[in-house]
Specification:
The protein has 592 residues and is an alpha/beta fold. 45% of the residues lie in helices and 19% in strands. It contains 21 helices and 20 strands. Strand 13 and strand 14 form a beta hairpin. The longest helix has 23 residues. GO terms for molecular function: cyclic-guanylate-specific phosphodiesterase activity.
């Protein structure tokens, strides 16, 4: 291989490594190109990169097309010689008179080389005109200075962290820059951008810990190659996070058709042997208008879409404004919960009484949390408790509820009413080593007996089947605190846990109670639940009782207690006391 060929291979390798070819236009380059055209007073200027068979324009003024053939392109001469080059009149130049530019009516050309720090010329910064022209030494010196500024921008792109070293792909900062440039160019029409997330955080950490960083690098390189092939020669993917890649769909793509292509891409990624280990890739999509959606909102929407994709069976999801609104509301809820804990007028407890079917007396109630947000209004606990439970505020929420509930029991006791309150236990509470001590200290503080507290455990809580969890439940049971299995019948393993948990009460879910009046099979199911619970020594409470007929039927089936709107809606403390005083006599369910 001769020196010239070897040098050209090295030059092309340097050009490819910079990943400038077939990238989006950039305002950082465009402003230099505009300046060059203005200084020379010419209609055309370009940052022209010399590829194998073409001159590709990273930046351009006065040109509609993106490339011309390399053959007889004056910029190719600049790249090959690494010297400035001037054609004063194409019509008087035997070599270039019949070139692509010459045939297009160009008469004047001046180009300055774009030379890298290691001495390779990538192409030229050039200016062109449709009339013959002379050029002064000062003008050429200025053009060379501007070419150097172009290369400074290229170097800055890399030096300031625009390229991800692991993959060699442009990173998140470059994507933000390209999205901004798209808006500045006044690009119109819907575009589609996708975000591939290879693994969840815990999967990534597990993979790195077990297999080491070299395996992870192998996966990144494999995925980078797949995505580069997917986007084609005229585009580039972006490496925007440790396991995340963003890429644009081809222009004029529609969502439905492109989603089919993404499914194929996902299959390729999942089929790669390196990504099959501990990785579950997902892809989120956003269809956006560059003129109406800010780059920050595009990236945030991509993250929202890919999280929704993780929860879907297809693992591919289009950004949903409705889902995004829910996520943003959840964030607002979490953000405002700290102030709600400190405020005196936002969080409160209401109480729904339970009726002892055999005696007609009311000696217990369930405490339910309410939140009256100053801006959003009343927020249902079904909405805010799961959000808070998964956050750092879960412990504070538990302490607030315990403090308020036990203080109410104390106040009622001073008014001559001995009452038991049922509180919902969070899954996280079973993992708190000091939960027992915190509960006991509050009982002592308000002089309340442990048997006046009943803790309800849902199946989510019960699934914390650890030695520490069962140890805590046994400790609570020994101290006199009562335990109840909530929403019985709705989970997959309730029967198994009936034998393990040191509980006192089983609460039949409202869905079974609601269906009970529809037919014999539904009644048989409820009777079976009651009989099974009784045979294992549990007291049975039916939730969601809304009619006299349901109450009478549950009495016949042997249910011990009932709770629901038929008896009372959840009410505040004073209203509960007034209600109890007004119903001094026991409640009789069945007539006669």
């Amino acid at each position: 291989m001769d020196f010239t060929m070897h040098n050209e291979i090295a030059r092309l390798s340097s050009l490819k490594s910079l990943r400038l070819l077939d990238t989006l236009p950039s305002e950082n380059f465009d402003r230099i190109t505009r300046l060059a055209a203005d200084i020379f007073g010419l209609p055309i200027a370009a940052v022209s990169l010399t590829d194998v068979n073409r001159q590709w324009f990273k930046s351009k003024v006065g040109v509609d097309h993106n490339e011309i053939p390399r053959e007889k392109a004056p910029c190719a001469n600049v790249a090959e010689t690494k010297k400035p080059f001037v054609i004063r009149d194409f019509q008087q130049d035997d070599c270039y008179v019949d070139s692509t530019l010459g045939c297009a009516g160009i008469r004047f050309y001046a180009g300055a080389p774009l030379v890298t720090a290691d001495g390779y010329a990538l192409g030229a910064l050039c200016v062109l005109g449709t009339e013959p022209r002379d050029v002064t030494d000062k003008e050429m010196a200025t053009l060379c200075d501007l070419a150097a500024m172009v290369m400074d921008q290229v170097e800055l792109t890399h030096a300031l962290g625009r390229i991800e070293p692991c993959s060699g792909l442009p990173n998140r900062f470059q994507l933000m820059n390209d999205l901004t440039d798209s808006a500045l160019r006044a690009d119109v029409g819907e575009r589609i951008i996708s975000l591939l997330d290879l693994a969840q955080t815990e999967q990534f950490e597990r993979l790195s810990r077990v297999l080491g960083p070299s395996h992870f690098d192998t996966v990144i390189h494999a995925v980078s190659s797949l995505l580069t092939e997917h986007v084609g020669p005229n585009a580039t993917p972006y490496h925007v996070g440790p396991t995340q890649f963003a890429f644009f769909a081809p222009d004029n793509s529609d969502v439905e058709s492109y989603m089919i292509l993404l499914k194929g891409l996902l299959c390729e990624i999942e089929g790669d042997s390196d990504t099959q280990i501990s990785m579950t890739p997902a892809i989120g999509m956003v269809s956006y208008d560059p003129q109406t959606m800010l780059p920050e909102d595009i990236l945030r929407s991509l993250q929202s879409a890919v999280q929704d994709a993780r929860e879907s069976s297809a693992k591919i999801e289009l950004f949903s404004p409705a889902m995004d609104l829910r996520h943003r509301r959840n964030f607002r809820i979490l953000q405002d919960f700290r102030s709600a804990l400190a405020a005196s007028d936002q969080l409160s407890l209401v109480f729904q009484p339970r009726l002892d079917v055999a005696t007609g007396e009311i000696r217990s109630a369930e405490a339910l949390l309410r939140w009256d947000h100053p801006v959003l209004g009343p927020i249902s606990p079904v909405e805010f408790i799961p959000v808070v439970e998964a956050s750092a505020f879960a412990r504070e929420l538990t302490d607030w509820v315990m403090h308020k509930a036990i203080s109410h029991i104390s106040v009622w006791g001073k008014r001559g009413l001995r009452f038991k309150l049922s509180l919902n236990l969070l899954a996280l509470n079973l993992e708190e080593g000091d939960f027992f001590e915190r509960l006991m200290s509050k009982l002592v503080l308000f002089d309340v007996e442990p048997n006046q507290i009943e803790l309800e455990l849902t199946e989510t809580v019960m699934m914390k089947e650890t030695e520490g969890a069962f140890g805590l439940l046994n400790q609570l049971k020994t101290a006199g605190v009562q335990l109840a299995i909530d929403d019985f019948g709705t989970g997959y393993s309730s029967l198994a846990y009936l034998q393990k948990l040191p509980a006192d009460v089983v609460k039949i879910d409202r869905s079974f109670v609601a269906e009970m009046e529809n037919g014999n099979r539904e009644r048989v199911l409820v009777r079976s639940m009651i009989d099974l619970s009784h045979s294992l020594g549990y007291r049975v409470v039916a939730e969601g009782v809304e009619t006299q007929e349901a109450a009478n039927l549950l009495e016949v089936l042997g249910c011990d207690e009932i709770q629901g709107y038929w008896l009372s809606r959840p009410v505040r403390s004073e209203a509960l006391l007034d209600w109890l005083i007004a119903r001094q006599r026991p409640v009789v369910l069945l007539a006669g």
